Amino acid sequence: MPLLSKPRLLERLQSGIEASGWRWQAARRTHPFRLRVFNDQSSVDLCVYIWNVTHGGGAARPASEYRIQLTGVQPPLAIEPGVTTLLLGWSEAWSLFAAYDVSRHRTFSEASPSIQFRQDAIASAIGTGMSFHRRSNGEVVVLFRPELLWPT
Fold it and tell me: Would you say residue 1 lies in a domain?
């Protein structure tokens, strides 16, 4: 399956927000994206980093490994007061988002900018809508369907 461009990833993000019952307004359509997510009662300003989910890094990596690669940005990832920062992956093959803990990845090695999760989390998210995968460093990666992107 071909990788999506950043504008297409923004479309997936916006569709997920709408499927969650919220509306959005784009403040910046370049990566990282800046959006305001709102409904009749509240609003949240977002800074969203998003990449395609791809299979691991070749023969040296486990066959059950999937990842995002933090390319095209310089560390550290921005975290601004009053703005919620999301670190996401999108899988077009499974129509799932993967959410990572941005506080654990503000700085990263540009030589190896990958953040992985295991394949078993995918089947669970497809079946139930959401799954949690604990990485070896203790970080929890959440995989979920688009309509669960933003809480109601």
Answer: no
Q: 26-35: long-range contacts at Cβ-Cβ below 8 A with a sequence spacing of 24 or more? A: 30/6, 31/6, 31/72, 31/73, 32/73, 32/77, 32/78, 34/83
Structural domain contains residue 20 = yes
Total structural domains within the chain: 1
Query: In which domain, by residue range, is 12 found?
Result: 6-148
Helix (H) or strand (E) holding 91: strand 84-91
pLDDT, tens digit, for every residue of 82-99? 999 999 999 999 999 999
CA-atom Rg of the chain in angstroms: 15
Say how many residues make up the chain.
152
Residue 94 falls inside a structural domain: yes
Site of tokens 């009749």: 40
CA triple 126-128-131, angle to 5 deg: 80
Residue 71 has pLDDT above 70, yes or no: yes
